[in-house]
Amino acid sequence: MKVHAAALVLTLCASAMAFSPSSLSSSSVVVVPTTSSTRWSSTRLAMSTLDRPMSSSTPPARVSPDAGHVPDWEGRRNPTSPDEFMNSDPTSPNVGETMWECPLTRWDAEGINVREAQDMARDVPHCPLEIRASFEDNALGAEYFVRNRERLRDDLVKHGAIWFRGFDLMKTVRGNRLMHESLGLQPCLDPLHSSGLRKFASERDALYEEVNKPSLRQHYIGLHNESTAKRTAAYAAFVCFQRATEGGGRFLVADGAAILAELDPAVLERLYDRRVRISVSNLDIPPALPSLIKEGIRSLVDVAVAPKFDMDLEMMYEMDGKPGRLQAVETAESPINRHPVTGLPVWFNNAHNHARKLRDRRPCGVPEVGMTEVFYADTMDPLDLEDCLEIKRASEKHITALSMEPGDVLLVDNYRALHGRDVFQGDRFHAVTWFTWDRNEEWRGDERRIVEKNAFNKAINKMMDWLPKDFVSDQS
Predict the structure, then answer these.
(1) 87 or 428, higher pLDDT
(2) Structural domain boundaries of the chain?
(3) Is the Cβ–Cβ distance between 112 and 338 less than 8 Å?
(4) Which of 139, 325, 435, 459 is most solvent-facing, going by the fewest CB within 10 Å?
């Protein structure tokens, strides 16, 4: 599951304050100065530095990870005002009221021979496919996508993602919607819509705001599929309306097949055999509380809070070794999955984003209650540093750090490609629409959005707007 953990933070903070105000002391989070710029260079910390043993009093160095491919910026003009891109077409239907629910995750992970799977995944074409608009393409507007629909849909499955560059159509909310409607894609809710994890940028156009909030601009979002063990969007269209005004904010994409082929076979086999479980949030309860009270808190959170996230969660105490810590942990899942359409084995796992040993070593903008962890499912021990570093190496070798500019769209096959975002400065406005299965009704299901469930989403997002800018968790 993606972290963007502010929603989990606020929800469990509210629960924590209800149960024990002392458990959320002022030392939980601090405001610290942030760097003035983000540079992509070959001078990142060496792997040996990341692997250096740390004393309990010495926090690891924080470095924004590198990428295997870093395209140049092209310098398209940023809009001077959101009015230039936020206007919707009032004559178009309000699709926000009738969106599909995010479909259930398609799991096909049994009986995989790891080395054979790596051989199958080894010769995939580069992800993403880059398509630059010509003068003639831009003159066609939405008709370009109508005429090329089948080819583009085939290319999406073949490459895992398509980067549309230089298209004028998608510089506005109205044009962006015309693009995906011309491709025949059907919008669905975010996998965790009811949790308040994202708010709409334009609800009637099924367009969610991406993670642009000032409070999270110094938070590096690692690679992840838009997925939980329970729900996964089939596709996504990430659109840039305004690039970061003061630098940074590259969008990250990497091919799950290429990562699978790259990983050390011994590490991959170990992870596949043992499976993984992901803790998505922490609630620190005073360790001295009687067991009966702690169990009552666990049961109350399990019944009253966890269901809001539409996930299969188990509330577990002290899995990461911290006394009194109550963690919401997903069910066991395989780090390898077969693609539902092609059957291609892919790395389908969010450890690059969620592993604590990696997040502690890069810019992080969430308080402790929102910090995540990845465990071996058989023993519930956190992933070893060596396994985390191999995931880091293989993942970042295949990251393309996109220089997205106004009008650019990254169309993603969410089962094949993982995505993320680097830190940024200033103001940035990216948005995303999720899509369900449009060519297989059985996979899509018949669940439509229940609008009445939206109250929790709106309440959480109002609270998120109160967060201070650039606050990070205390790692000292």
Answers:
(1) 428
(2) 6-25+93-468
(3) yes
(4) 139
Between 442 and 305, name the one with better pLDDT. Answer: 442
Q: What is the pLDDT of residues 24-65, one digit of tens each?
A: 222 222 222 233 333 343 333 333 344 444 445 577 889 989
Residue 287 pLDDT: 87
Q: Which long-range contacts (CB under 8 A, 24 or more apart) does 70-73 make?
A: 70/40, 70/250, 70/400, 70/401, 70/403, 71/130, 71/400, 71/401, 71/402, 71/403, 72/403, 73/243, 73/403, 73/405
Tokens of 339: 């693609």
The CA-CA-CA angle for residues 21, 24, 26, to 5°, reads 115
Q: Is CATH 3.60.130.10 the right assignment for the domain spanning 6-25+93-468? A: yes
Strands (E), 177-250: 187-188, 200-202, 207-209, 221-224, 235-242
Q: Which amino acid is at 167?
A: F
Q: Which comes out higher in pLDDT, residue 72 or 461?
A: 72
pLDDT at position 336? 98
Average pLDDT of the chain is 84
**% pLDDT > 90, the chain:** 63
Long-range contacts of 382-388, Cβ-Cβ distance < 8 Å, separation of 24 or more: 382/320, 382/355, 382/356, 382/357, 383/276, 383/351, 383/355, 383/357, 385/51, 385/357, 386/51, 386/267, 387/267, 387/270, 387/271, 388/351, 388/355, 388/357, 388/358
